[in-house]
Design goal:
- The structure holds 2 protein chains of 2 kinds.
- By secondary structure, chain A is an all-alpha fold.
- Helices cover 70% and strands 3% of the residues of chain A.
- In chain A, helix 12 (282-291) packs antiparallel against helix 16.
- Chain A is elongated, with a radius of gyration of 34 Å.
- By secondary structure, chain B is mostly helical.
- The longest helix of chain B is centred in the last third of the chain and has 31 residues, at 56-86.
- The radius of gyration of chain B is 16 Å and the shape is elongated.
- Classes of the chains: A mainly alpha, B mainly alpha.
- Chain A binds chain B through residues 650, 653-662, 665-666, 669, and chain B through 18, 21-23, 30, 91-92, 94-99.
Chain lengths: 685, 99
Amino acid sequence: MLENAWIIPTLPAVAFVAIVFFGKRSPGKGAFVGIAAVGASFVASCVAAGQWIQRVDNATGKSEGLAAFTKGVVSAGGAHAVQPVTESITWWQNGSIKFGVGTFVDGLTVMMVVVVTLISLLVQIYSTAYMRGDRRYTWYFAALSLFTASMLTLVVASNTIQLLVGWELVGVCSFMLIGHWWEEPANSRAAIKAFLTTRTGDIGLMIGIIILFFTVGSFGIGATNLYATSGHAQHAFLLAAAVCLLVAIIGKSGQFPLHTWLPDAMAGPTPVSALIHAATMVVAGVFLGARLYPVFFNGFSIGHGGVNAMALVGGVTIIIGAALAFVQTDIKKVLAYSTISQLGYMVMALGVGAWSAAVFHLFTHAFFKALLFLGAGSVSHAAGHSFDMREMGGLRKKMPITFWTFVIGSLALAGIFPLAGFWSKDEILVNAGKNGYTAFLVVGLIGAFLTAAYMTRVVYLTFFGEYRGHEHPHESERAITIPLVILGALSVGAGLVNAAPLGLEKIKDWVQPQVAFPHLNNAAFDYPKAILSVSIALAAIVIAGYYWLRRDELRAFRGLTERNALARSGYQFLVNKYYLDYLYEDIIVDGIRGAVARASYWVNQHVIDGVVNGLGSGSTRIARYTYDVIDQRVVDGAANGIALETDRAGAEVRGFQSGHVQRYALVLFGGVGLLSLALFLINIH
Amino acid sequence: MQLNEFLILAAFLFCTGAYGVLARRNGVLVLMSIELMLNAVNINLVAFSAFTKNVSGQIFALFIITIAAAEVGVGLAIVLLIYRNLHSPDLDEVDQLKG
């Protein structure tokens, strides 16, 4: 399976084509085809994961395989470096440059394909219930399949060109799915916004790829990483490439300041939001950072400590995302800002040299964020298709499965021991402190506090108190609750993959590349810091819970925004999302519409039109000269001359063609006679 | 018998035929002249066959007689059509292919 990893993205791609052409007539209106394909893909991914683990264990001299994992045996340092499995064929050739297409399979790839196919499978099963009766039900499943296929193409890519192809396809699919209900102008606007905002980042990716190609001389991911880790890499080029690729990450993974598309992307169906936020699309950016990590590591000199762009972007995003989550009334938007904040953790982790922590957080976050989104979808599905938390409340008794899984997801997100989020978030914080990034450790702790607090608010508003809506909420059906339960179990257990105090460091052993990778100091588990972060999260939950439960008694805070100008302006600042949308839409876009439009009109009229007119009249003059001299005299002269000569020659010989058979016969005999005479004269001697 | 007499006879017949083909205006006479030329060739073939004691020349002569019969059939049909269209067997009037 490691050599034939191309099967994994191919299956959903085939499903896409099959659903588009035969979906409406197939059983389940295309849903079964999509589920079967991604299910098969998931099985193939698991097989690949098993084989990869076997390969790593063989190389490190351990033969227990998975048994070692269950027993919790600490692996000794690898005796042999495990090489990634690369397969590639030439796609097309341009001069001496070969453009390949193939698969690059290592631990990171294997982990990603398992996560992507698993989440996609659960989302598709969930969608059969959630999207029932939708007017574009079949097309929806086709688009989901293509989305999964694109993400898998990106993940297994063996070169940056293929990665770019997958990256753009993911963008297109997210555009289609966010705008799935395009009849609402707001939805199609959100789709366009998501597409254009991420395109801004894509330009960075393209330039970055080009810089890397001319620096390295190859598009190959393995070759790029080898070059970046070799001692003779040119630092200036690596820095330029890293900056460009960071722009791509900012665009795709919703980092500050290009995060504004992510909350609007909530316009799509909820399962799509789960897919976008957990498995595809936004994690593509973090994956890019992890895949080409040597470029970032050496480009930004991460090993030397100090502030770098990557950590800074991540750190800023953690805080602004978390702060915005407080003022949202739409449950999905809270989760969207939460995703932005958590992606900030991942990018920051990459920026502080905590590669395995970032990848680990990506892994665990996929499960609990998918769980939270699907839970929110379950709530709205039951409660009249509204996402407004002001119309919810008191759903705890009415939908127990959704409630408990949602609470588990929230606790995992808040980083409460021993759920998945605790292990990964803690590892990021410990590594940030260890590698000399104390400021980012503090940022991470503040983020942890805010995360726990806003999730408490969401859980309180949705599930506690009195029901404020006008529907009759009920527990969702099994196609919805079963994925929730599976994801709930994973949100509890996924953290054990890399639970350092228990001796499990499988992300480091299995996922972290052993060749062409910078030497990283993975920090050991640190009890005081872990206790500190859990206490902060618990304190946040207690404070927020106390505030919401005893809101009426806390007179001091009630109406604070009405009485205190500072609090009001702060609240307004958050409600208006730091005015970034105004900056982008009113100032930048309108600026372009206004002043820049006028300027470009002037340029149009005077410069471009002048050039065009000049070119036009010049062309006319040249054309006239060509017509007079070349066309009329040379070409026509030649043509007419040839015709005239032919005519004259024809007139000369036409007498010969008398039409009289006997004259022809005379010529025939005369010719034979002449030839006979010639023969006679030659042989006469 | 000498070979020469036959060759002279054949040459005379051939020349007569050639003259007829080139000079006569009547289509039927032109066909008959062609027959003369063919028979001149037949005489040559048979004479050389007898002279060299080789029978293949006579077989060639038989073939030529057969083909001449077919040729006269086609030729007479053409002459008949010319006569029907032009009301004259005169070949000088057949010049529709004039360039």
